Amino acid sequence: GEDVEQSLFLSVREGDSSVINCTYTDSSSTYLYWYKQEPGAGLQLLTYIFSNMDMKQDQRLTVLLNKKDKHLSLRIADTQTGDSAIYFCAEKVESSASKIIFGSGTRLSIRP
Amino acid sequence: DTGVSQDPRHKITKRGQNVTFRCDPISEHNRLYWYRQTLGQGPEFLTYFQNEAQLEKSRLLSDRFSAERPKGSFSTLEIQRTEQGDSAMYLCASTRGDQPQHFGDGTRLSIL
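YS: structure for the whole thing
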């Protein structure tokens, strides 16, 4: 089946690193994504990783993929107040639609 | 701005009324998706178009829902005889080939 799980909440202090974790079930996933959603807005693509990669770094963002354990993580270095949002992990399902299956989102809050 | 555009941003209607939403994808994108997002959840796939052809529909899409993409450009999603349970954010996304999906800001539907 297709399922994506992530913890609901994460609170970090400003300037610390945030690590958001995700597990997925579909071993045939080709791409895995991290989207950010701010209140009242749509989803903003943050970064994505192809399933044959282990790591991808993009400025303050680092994505780690453990394909054996079907585990994906997003690390945000030097977390800022503007990083407060809901972060969605998602996998691309290979089918005629190539639709995306989303987790329920992790709400990241920043403490001063 | 050449992103995905959705209209209206908010729609409030009485139960039993019909509503129609519009999505204008990024111009060179041939694939268009509709998702529904309820509070505290990630988006759920509703339907998918490749050019003007509707190629897949989720079982979430009851017979009260219909979507069109008549010229392979903009798309409309209509809900007939709205029910309380239809209250949600309706998100549109577009892409081309294997590229990540880009989302609009959504239409928030509230049923009174």
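YS: worth flagging: The mean pLDDT of chain A is 92.
IM: good catch. Also The interface with chain B takes residues 4, 30-31, 33, 35, 40-45, 48, 88, 90, 95-105 of chain A (CB under 8 Å).
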